[in-house]
Each structure stands twice: as structure tokens, then as C-alpha cells.
Amino acid sequence: MYEASIDSELDPNVQLYNPNISEEDTFAKLKALLKRAVESSPFYQKKFREANIDIEKIKALEDLKLLPFTYKEELRDAYPLGLKAVPEAEVVRIHSSSGTTGKPVIIPYTRKDVDVWAEMMMRCYMLAGLSNLDRIQITPGYGLWTAGIGFQLGAERLGAMAIPTGPGNTEKQLEMLIDLKSTALASTSSYALLLAEEIEKRGLKDKIHLRVGIIGSERWSEKMRSRIENELGIETFDIYGLTEIYGPGIALDCSFHEGMHYWSDHLLFEIIDPITGEQLPEGTLGELVITTLTKEGAPLIRYRTRDLTRIIPGVCKCGCPFPRIDRILGRSDDRIKFKAVNIYPGQIEDVIHRVPGVSSEYQILLTRKNGRDSMTFRVEIENAEDPSIKQKTEKAIGKAFKDFIGVTVDVVGVKIGELPRSMKKTKRVIDEREL
């Protein structure tokens, strides 16, 4: 349950229990953001001028739809510091996206931005039941990427012991888990699974002290969640964030695991139809759009995340007053187009969840021969060394694909642990049709 008895003296300024999240307060923050943008942001001065936007016409929250969207392509075009909305003397740090698909997006942070991010991360830890007595092993990367330093900021604000191992070096990770008695693990789901399998393989489960996993950076299914929890003996919490919007820590699921609470005193969420751009009502699946209400260094207004989710109506059973979004289903731009059918990762995970004896780990190979597309679906299954069980499970998966997605695929069952493991994000789709 969501308890107000957690030691709130860790930071007397944290608004975890009685946040000021009324519509009036949110609108006041939106108006202040718009004022800062037109006065201090060359990026939004130009954008609003070209869209003929008069911020004085924004009279209520419902007028948010009158403002133009902000796209990642625009952020790339602003490289290196075109998003800066404060004097350079106020920028204390920059972070950046990977830039694997073009110029990286560089986000400047002020001291207040860093403090707000640390507070949001601390709230996530508190919501997961962690305190200043915990020891948090941080495996995501450090540097320009936001992940590692974000997890560390929150741990330090909480007063917990941060163990900044960073990515890779599994031998050192296991050594730290055992010798330092880490109680919480921050990682991607792929790396948490890799560690779980190594711990199981080496018979180390009774030597570790983990009880909580804060898992993020990539989609992960309920089946994968169950495997990680069972093999490590922990409770996992799904954390959400983007480099453009601070980094990790803008939302986390509570112990009921019925959606992720997001910090609505700092962020304004809306859901839109990814095709028409129209706002959608609560409970409807669509694309998440975020406005950073209190960000100074690089504020973003109606930023299209491309992440597919919904705002969950009502108050959570845990008692936390902050609103929730559902776990991320996928991205509007990561769908697989196969034989005129759009397939999303969430649909694939739903298929394998329906078939007994199937692992969470899969890999898709898309090929084209003589103008005909083919999909090979490789998936780990239990007892794959038994030909009869393997054949029966492959047939069940193929039928599920046909029944629930409407496509025919070539299913290849492999043994548990046979597919590649990653210390970062696992690449699940290999598309060779354009090669």
C-alpha cells in the first residue's frame, strides 16, 4: 500500500503526499512556461511566430490544443545549443541522445532542472519502498546519456548508498551485489535478465540481498517481468523517462503495478491520435505528448514522444494522488509493416503470453525474396530439446499469430538462453528486406 509513513524528512520540500496539482495551478504553470518561452527561447520565438501563435489567447488548459507540436526532428535541427532558453551562465550541464539516427539532441540543464530531476527520481525510489538505508546498484551508462547519473541523483537525494557500477563487466556486478549487499538494482530489463540467469547458473541466489528492481529504458513484457522477479526473488518497478524530458524518473509504477504514476506538478501529459493529432479522452490508447511545466534550460511544449500509452482514469488503489499512464505499449514509429499489417511489440508479447512454455525472449527476422516478404520468429521455449514438445509449441505460436494478429510466420523454437543477451537494449527485430 501507499504509505505516508515513509521518512518524508529526507527532503522537507518533496511534494510526494500533498502535491499541488489542481487545474488552476497547472494552468498557472503553463502560462508562466509560455511567457518564458516567448521571452527567452529563440527556438519557440521562431516556432510561435511561424505558427502565428498569440499566447494571450491561451485562456484555459483546454486551449493547449491550439499550440503547435514539437518534434524530435526539430530538436536535432537545433543542434548544438539551439534549444537553450537561459543565459549560458545558468547552464550547469548538458545531456544528449545517442544520435544513432542523425544529429544528437543536446539538452541544457540549469541548477533548478537538476534539482527537480533529482526530486522526481527520489520520489520514484520512495514509491518503490526504498529509503536511505538501501544500497542501490546502478548499472545503466554514465556520460552524455541521462540514465546512470539520473539514478545516482535520486539515490543521493534519498540518502541511500549509490553503487555506480555502470554498464557491463558482469563479474564485477556480481561481486558488488554479493560483497556490498546491494538491496536494489537499477538496470534495463535485458541486463536484469542477463544477471538473473548468471546468478541462477552459478548458484548465487542465496548470496545476494536484492529486494527491489527499478527497470527501464526499453519495453518489457509481463512474462519477462515474472522471470526477472522469480529468478532474482525481487519486486520490480517500471520506470519511464526520455533524454529530452529530464531523463529517467518522470513516472514509475507503484506496488499495485496498474500503471505508472507521473509527476504532474512538473509535467503536463496528454494523449493524441498519432495520425490526426487530435486530443483523446482518458482511457483511450494513443501517443503521449509532454509539456515540461517547470523546466528552464530547454523547456518543451507539446513534445511528441511517439510512445503509445493511455492516461488511466481514477485514483490508484495505492492512494498516491498523482495520475497514471499505462505501461508503454510501443512506439508509433517502431511498428513492423508486414504484408500490409501493422504489428506492434505489445501485440507480439501478447501472443507469446498466451502460449504456455514460451519464454519472454524472441527475435524477428524479416526477409524478402522475389518480391515476397517472410517473417521468421525465433523464440525461446521450455524443453526445446524434446522434438515433440518443440513442434507442438511452435505450432501453437504460429496459430496464435494467425488468430490474434492475422499473419502467417515461420516459428523456430530454441532452447532457453540461446538467443543473444544484451547489457543495454536488446535488438529484437532484424529487417533485411531493404539490404
From TrEMBL:
Transport is among the record's keywords: no
Domain AMP-dependent ligase C-terminal: from-to ranges: 341-433
Enzyme Commission number(s) of this protein: 6.2.1.30
A Pfam family per the record: AMP-binding
Species the sequence originates in: Methanosarcina thermophila CHTI-55
Protein name: Phenylacetate-coenzyme A ligase
Keyword Protein transport among record annotations: no
Leading EC class: ligase
Keywords: Ligase, Nucleotide-binding, Phosphopantetheine, Phosphoprotein
InterPro entries on file: Adenylate-forming_Reductase, AMP-bd_C_sf, AMP-dep_Lig_C, AMP-dep_synth/lig_dom, ANL_N_sf, PA_CoA_ligase
GO terms, biological process: phenylacetate catabolic process
Subunit: Monomer.
Chain ranges of the AMP-dependent synthetase/ligase domain: 84-291
